[in-house]
Amino acid sequence: MRRSYVRALGAAALAVAMVGAAGCQDTGGGETTASGDCGGKIAIFGAFTGDNAGLVLPSLNGAKLAVKQFNEKNSNCKVTLQEFDTQGDPAVATPFANQIAGDNSFLGVIGGHFSGESDATMPIYQAAGLAMVSPSATRADLTQKGNKSFFRVVGNDGTQAGAVATYLKSQNAAKVFTIDDGSAYGAGITAELAKNIGSTLAGTDKIQEKQAQFDATISKIKAAQADFVFYGGYTREAAPLVKQMRAAGIQAKFVGPDGLYDPAFPKGASGGAEGAIITCPCLPADKAGGTFSADYQKEFGQAPGSYGAEGFDGAQIYLDAFKDGKKTRADILAYVKAYDKQGVSKYIKFDDKGDVDPSKVVIWAYQIKGEEISALQELKLS
Amino acid sequence: MHFDELIGHLGQHTVDGLSKGAIYALIALGYTLVYGVLRLINFAHSEVFMVGTFAVLGLWTAFGVKNNPPIGQAVLFLVLGLIAAAIASGGTALAIERIAYRPLRRKNAPPLIFLITAIGISLVLVEVFGLLLPDVAGGALPTLFGRARQIVGMPTIIQQETLLQIGNTAITNIQLIVFVSAVVMMALLDWFINRTRYGRGVRAVAQNPETAALMGVNQERVIMLIFMLGGIMAGAAALLWSMRFGFTQNSIGFVLGLKAFTAAVLGGIGNLRGALVGGLFLGIVEVYGATLFASNWEDVIAFVVLIVVLMFRPTGLLGESLGRARA
Amino acid sequence: MIDKIRSADRRRVSMLTSVGDRFRALPKWQQAAAIVALVAFLYYLPLLGIPGLTWLRTDSIAGGNNWAGVLFVCAIYVLVAIGLNVVVGLAGLLDLGYIGFFAIGAYSVALFGSVNSPVVKWIQQEFDLPPTWAVTWAVCLLLSIVLTLISGVLLGWPTLRLRGDYLAIVTLGFGEIIRIVARNATGLTNGPQGISAIPGPEGPPSGDNKVFGLIDAKPWYWLAITMVLLMVFLVRRLEHSRVGRAWLAVREDEDAAAVMGVYPFKAKLWAFAIGAALGGLSGFLFGSRNAFIDPTQFNANLSILFVAMVVVGGSGNMIGVSLGAVLLAYLPERFREVADYRWLAFGLAMVLVMILRPQGLIPSRRRARELKDRAAAAEEAPAHV
User: What topology does it adopt in the membrane (chain B) (predicted)?
Assistant: First the structure.
């Protein structure tokens, strides 16, 4: 009997403690960074681990490099870059957005890196008055939703598809066969391309992710007698596809978007990808502004991959804002909106929807030579 | 719907389907053997196959094989690759049996527990090959395994050529090799199970473990034998895969294993010939379906066919048996 | 080493059971008080600020996730685990496609509740409705439960007559079918682009919402935990009802149950449908809270994670499976440094738990007894496989 009293007392004491603690709880955020004259905190979110990390890490590295260089040059400013790893999953990105939006020390956001996570979190950042600069979310309709705080330093799928269409036209493509992987990115860019190439579209197929055998697709390409094959998607499916196409004797030229701008693509196809064309809204290393490529190489021991320059530019916008003495979310948002400067990847100036001025987007065609992705030519937009 | 395309090239699609199904069938054998004797789904079998492809990759990389070697070398590399894959896959299967299944068998755990253990093993193997291998190997083995989470290419050992042209149906040398080797492996296994002393032991345990034990059949040995045989078949499939598709990745097992298991169930799990029939049937259905609709409906078609077949023939096309039919 | 783990484990279990026994021995009012305290604590969790316990919060680390947001995920996973427990733990049916029901639940609120969905747009056009019209949240809630219930019956009807192992593969296939259809049927589901602006209780997501706003996730957690408590109560009632006893009977020996007058197929179908509805409910909350879904969020890995939650926690025991769900959802968030190794850790955990403690961390008494009986039978007849 006595024991149960003790327990009841204990429970009551615990309840009191809890209620008491509830009164003085901290919300976990709220603490402001003690910064000098200028500086602040930026959040960057994206798939930094998981299967798609390879596409996103260069951008994170680019942003890190920009912040590091800034902090070295401006000892009175202390800018911190906080990374949030979403694994590319919109459902993980949402609570992160709650966290970043609720923590007033964050003044700007770089991300999302994929279109899905950007779409999911845009309303939250807008409600918090935070600017969002995406280095790599390319889905065309992201900027068509009336969102006031979303910007991207990368051309959208429509722009790239337009450039691909002009390229195909300049090569006198008569019969184009398009294939996509049914992902938001691959299907999106392929649909945009189909709008642009009109009657030269000779046939289409959709494959599924992790597919290995493409006999049915290859039969369709053969039946269509295509002279160009466009594949919208990523390396995993593209490498075996192009290899099997070549083995089956299809001579059609293989064209793919920046999802294939990945050293694993020629390696994965082990020779099959020779001569394939990859378009990318990214500048070749030697054309990129300033010393970015060399610095990146020095810092991370490898060449900046896809979106490395965009990540750098995304961070640079905020760094310029801090340098300019902007200290509130509203000021920074206004600053981003009015940004007008040469960046590393391209000239950056946003239109009223948040897309970078289409005339400033640069799209390059690259060609696979051996295991190298070598720059071929700059593509005209439309 | 592309009916005209399907009908117009029916022969071609059938050939494509058969060569696709042959690999399913070889992997399906592993499921069927284990199921026939132990009545459990070795969910980790897909990873046994994956390990085999990495063994082939490792061997070919170590020998510095280039694209399209001369025919003598090509045969040598194929044989060596087969040995490496069979050892790696058979060894993995045995290791799984020893580490995971044996303690469970001792406790007479229900099938659910086996299945979940197998799923766990499968996850561990996928992740080990995806993450740890490149990390542990560090700078020592980067060219051997690359970033295994990404796709890794392998050299083309045999150039694909059209061997036979019948009407508008072309049969390539690779398709023929894949199909013939699969059928030969299968026939060998069938002979082994049905005609040899060891095979008799396997059938005996499959029929009635207790009586078999009384008759002096060493059960543990039989179980090890079937895991090893299943592993060797997966190794053979891994070699054929490497020759035909020329790439691997840590995660290739899951989808393939799912299809192979579907094939085994379609044919009648526990039935060796059923695995062949199920695999070929599934391969053909998939290619027909992908032609008729689009390739992205392939998996849906495969699973719908599975559900429909099971509704009307709950024990698969040929029925279940490892011990019963021929014993 | 393993022996050490085993004996430590045995001690822990005996402690757990003795806690359970002592709890049951307490007077009614004290039991009630303890439960009230626990419930109060659950509601208080998102505000957790007890000194010494704040390290539990996921936002206590740099780059950590929103605490209330993580708690919400834990809560809906608990809901999933409770639902899957009905199927796996109580009725003994292995369902590897539970994500399919979760997806149907999420898609039903998205398709009928969001103004961006093709379905809503089509209805607007057909019936001349204003472009802001969509099915209200509460109706979507009903819809998602009804739709998942129906899909559970539709899947169960042809497949539940199959033996357990076949069921596993068929359900796995079902989960994949749902995901691939969501991805390919662009005209119906928007395909890979996903659907945004999924409504909450106060209507479409908006910064002006008073309670379920965009920035604060706490109300969502409170909503989810309320649903969880409600469902725990309901499932508990069900477990001790005629249906619940039928499930156990079928799980332990189907033939014997049939002889005793339990119709196994009906019992299984009930379990399947109820499990599906619970999965649908959690999917509904998931879609509603995130306000955005796309097919990549429903892949087969999650099905496996769900099964892992149930078996690691202790299938058949609601407290056990809830613990499993919380652990598997919470640990990777709190210890983000191992994020890249999370699937490896899940795999290892599954293998170790199954080999060392097949009944799970907090086992159901009945289940533990069953396993013990089987192990004893194995010792008596070592020849049996």
Answer: Multi-pass membrane protein
Whether a cis peptide bond, with omega within 30° of 0, leads into A112 is yes
8 Å CB contact of C73 and A188: no
Two tokens, residue A120: 């999911």
Rounded CA-CA distance C349/C367 in Å is 20
Residues in C closer than 8 angstroms to A44, CB to CB, are: none
What is d(CA C303, CA B119) in angstroms, rounded to the nearest whole number?
11
What domain count does chain A have? 2
- C149-165: per-residue pLDDT in tens? 999 999 998 888 877 77
Residues with Cβ within 8 Å of B261's Cβ and at least 6 positions away in sequence, in order, are: B28, B31, B41, B45, B46, C169
Alpha-carbon gap, residue C290 to A96, rounded angstroms = 11
Partners of residue C33 in chain A, C-beta under 8 Å = 8, 11
List phi, psi (to 5°) of A178: -110, 140
Residue B61 lies in a domain: yes
d(CA A358, CA A159): 7
Does residue A89 fall inside a structural domain? yes
Interface check A223 vs B, CB under 8 A: yes
Residue B139 banded pLDDT, cuts 50, 70, 90: very low
Do residue B107 and residue C94 have CB atoms under 8 angstroms apart?
no
Please give the model's pTM, rounded to 2 decimal places: 0.89
Q: For residues A146 and C41, which has the higher predicted lDDT (pLDDT)?
A: C41
Give chains near C: 3+ CB pairs under 8 A: A, B
Q: A173 and A133, same structural domain?
A: no
The tokens of C374 are what? 């089987």
Name chain B contacts of C374, Cβ cutoff 8 Å: 107-110
Q: What is the pLDDT of residues A123-134, one digit of tens each?
A: 999 999 999 999
Whether residues A297 and A265 share a domain: the answer is no
| DSSP code per residue over B23-91 | HHHHHHHHHHHHHHHH----TTHHHHHHHHHHHHHHHHHHTTPPSS--HHHHHHHHHHHHHHHHHHHHH
Contact B300/C349, CB-based, under 8 Å?
Answer: no
- Distance set, CA B53 to CA A279, B239, B256, C154 (Å): 32, 7, 13, 39
Question: Is the CB of B57 inside 8 Å of chain A's CB atoms?
Answer: no
CATH number, domain of B26, equals 1.10.3470
Per-residue CA distances from B215 to B33, B202, C347, C378 (Å)? 21, 13, 39, 19
Q: What are the residue ranges spanned by the domains of chain C?
A: 78-238+273-298, 304-371
Q: Which two tokens stand for residue C244?
A: 């619940």
Backbone angles phi, psi at B120, to 5 degrees: -60, -45
Put simply, the answer to whether C286 touches A91 (Cβ < 8 Å) is yes
How far is the C-alpha of C16 from the C-alpha of C23, rounded, in Å?
11
Query: Are residues A101 and A149 located together in one domain of the fold?
Result: yes
Residue that is written with structure tokens 């499968």 in the block: B122
Q: Are C217 and A95 an interchain contact pair (Cβ–Cβ within 8 Å)? A: yes
Could you say which DSSP state residue C340 is in? G
d(CA A251, CA C359): 59
Q: Which residues pair with A201 in a beta bridge?
A: A176
ipTM: 0.88
Contact residues on chain A for B245, CB-CB shorter than 8 A: 212-213, 240, 243-244
C191's CB contacts (< 8 A; 6+ apart) are A182, A187, C182, C183, C184, C185, C295
